[in-house]
Amino acid sequence: MSFFRSRWIDAPPHVREVPEGGLPAGFRAAAAHAGIKEGSEGLDVGLLVSDPQDTVSAARFTASGVLAAPVLVTRERCDLANIRVVAANSGNANAATGGPGMDEAARTQGAAAMVGGAREDQVAVASTGVIGVQLDGKKVSKGLLEASRALRIDGDADFAQAIMTTDAFEKRATLAVDLPSGTVTLSAQAKGAGMISPKFATMLCFVQTDAALAPETADLLLGVTVKRSFDRISVDGQLSTNDTVILMASGASGVRVAPESEDELRFGEALDALLRQLALDIVRDGEGARRVGRVVVRGGNGDGVDRVARAIADSPLVKTALYGADPNWGRIAQSIGGALPGTAPLAFDITIEGTLVCSGGFGIPVDLAKVEEAVRRDEVEFEIALPGDGFETEVFFSDLGHEYVVINAEYTT
Amino acid sequence: MSFFRSRWIDAPPHVREVPEGGLPAGFRAAAAHAGIKEGSEGLDVGLLVSDPQDTVSAARFTASGVLAAPVLVTRERCDLANIRVVAANSGNANAATGGPGMDEAARTQGAAAMVGGAREDQVAVASTGVIGVQLDGKKVSKGLLEASRALRIDGDADFAQAIMTTDAFEKRATLAVDLPSGTVTLSAQAKGAGMISPKFATMLCFVQTDAALAPETADLLLGVTVKRSFDRISVDGQLSTNDTVILMASGASGVRVAPESEDELRFGEALDALLRQLALDIVRDGEGARRVGRVVVRGGNGDGVDRVARAIADSPLVKTALYGADPNWGRIAQSIGGALPGTAPLAFDITIEGTLVCSGGFGIPVDLAKVEEAVRRDEVEFEIALPGDGFETEVFFSDLGHEYVVINAEYTT
Hints:
Two copies of one chain form a homodimer.
Chain A: E1 15-17, E2 27-32, E3 45-50, E4 56-61, H1 69-77, E5 85-92, H2 98-116, E6 123-130, H3 137-148, H4 156-162, E7 171-179, E8 182-191, E9 204-209, E10 212-213, H5 215-227, E11 233-234, E12 244-249, E13 256-257, H6 262-284, E14 292-299, H7 302-314, H8 316-323, H9 330-339, E15 349-352, E16 355-359, E17 362-363, H10 368-374, E18 379-385, E19 391-398, H11 402-410
Parallel strand pairs in A: 5-6, 9-12, 10-13, 11-19, 14-18
Antiparallel strand pairs in A: 1-7, 2-3, 3-5, 4-12, 7-8, 8-9, 14-19, 15-16, 15-18, 16-17
């Protein structure tokens, strides 16, 4: 199976990849070149439609205090449990664009409703790209009209391409999921190479299924799986203005996923594996990343466990060490201390790829060659034990190297 | 005047640099090569002594939850208001070294007391260097003995060199300060090229004066000026395990700085300018920094103002843009949003070198050539206005470029 590449993601046995891709029954998608990405001939406007009027959906957005216009429009003018159409563009984030930006996002929503055959409050809009530049909504509308003429069940590849910015590779999958009540299809298209990228911001992810879900089920499953995937990654620790994840269920398979059923459990496992692999793909694509780290933190204080995991994942010193394949755990000790001020003396353990290197807060003799060998691989795992127990969390993170500097410093606007 | 190089630091008119350097009356210092810095022939142990028994002092330490042994020993076994001797080493931070590390720090304290002619509780110890490796206290003791034989009033240059690690240049100054009651001398030696450096950690700063200060005055002045200097800088946002700042007043000039006097005001101004320039020197030396940024944030919420300033200063996206001389204020907008989740829609202004580029949360037309020219200079100023007023803060920060990656990733341990 080529999609579930990471040893950290368990592909459930009832999930099969559909190598040829495609959308679940009830969905159609397409894309167009609208000229929004300056100097690019590529696709930059995508349209996704779920035909059944009673499509069920759920959504999650960035927590940033600076919200892009499409996030505001979708959050406030949309029935988030009944999204039938997604209109997305790349090349311009439509963020920090004020009233005019809101007008353009609303214009996009209106145009997508018209060409997609939906009410305006059934249309979600999403943008990704440069912040602080006005979006030309007329170009987007024109692109949506063009895309609407090409809508098809295998339009997911074009749609995925239309939302890419600095992404080095496509992030999408189509899965067949065997549930006790029948087989359903689950597909997703994501983009992101940093929590925020150089000029082009954001992570977006659109998920489709032909299973029939109640709105509460869709919301519950999306909430839990986003917390375990896109909430647990860091490229540069920078929260975007545009992050959007939307799950849509057309119900066209006729297979109903009832609350608290075995179907729900199995569907949730499939969604979980799908979103976790996509999240990991974003980290792996993280602006020139050479290798990916996973930090697992355990301890008796839930807040402390989370803060330590994020501090390690966000530390430029830990990230550069990962890039350089340097098993310098002193930088991890420093991150722990920085995340938990005032707790000294703190007893903590650090384990790198199964080798305990620091016990009770100080270094112990280790087989350095073994650790050095382990940190040279593509995926490196760090485990931290803080005092107490009962809480555990993980964060996936990219390294920090020359390519990050090249992408972020040398390609000036 | 060569020391006060930055336009952001106002050298008070009653302060003159003493170009030849040297320590204030009552102080002597020296350094030795003790072989702690592996593969280096340089000085790595420094000894500083204030001869008067009634020397007054004050100290500040890192807030990290992982404290180095010398920080714990100094904080807990020292009369912080009567420090007469400083024993410092570079090449090993003696952090995450457990009980054995505590023993070595105590051994250093004992040796320095003996050779410096002081009680053990009058000796501060400080270390900087690699974390998690045991320090050989015998080497340090031998170095202290050698240094004690060379103690002299112009030993500040050697002492400053002995505490350097990855520092690209020396950070020290000697100032003559004219107070209404007479002229006093103020000197300082600092090190630091990152809040924490690659293998060699920490910022240290030792300040001496021959003015006579009450312990309360020393503590008050050091507290205020550290908050305005070393607390307001970021190279990589990483809190060290070893940060130490110590102010010592020998009183040997006979000039007394009384509480709430004009003397205190003027002395405080001199100390403030001295520490701010040294803090700025640390940022300028920040692991290959090309240019230095200053962000000033104003608004009605003190906590929010501080969080926004630090978020901007710590953002790898803002830092790489500074490195690339890219006036991409969208990244600053993104940082503001990330620091203030849940506040959207947020009205904020961004001004770059006097040019308003974003007003009320969205971009306005600007003379881009003028802004592009401004961000190419050595020092770049960003002003952020958040809603409300009453609070203002600043943070100085370095950029993030290839040299940072080289220093932190390519020189592996």
